[in-house]
Amino acid sequence: MGLHIAQGTLAVSHALGGGVNHYAQNAQQSKHRIHHCQQLVTETKLDELTREVREHNGFAKRMPVVEEQIKVINHRLLNLERKECK
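Predicted structure:
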């Protein structure tokens, strides 16, 4: 009878060990999926930020041109106003 108890105990502990191992593998896979999703979110945010920075840089490059055009327009307006006053 002691042999049967030992065999039963061994079978139960083997089953529990397999269950724990299965749980550990599932936990590792879930952790990997979560990490992968977080990486995708980070890459998406980085892509959007890069797009916004490029758009801003485009405006920054054009602003000196616009400022110069405004100076020219203001100068022309002053010339026109002076001609009307004469």
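Summary: The helical segments are 2-85.
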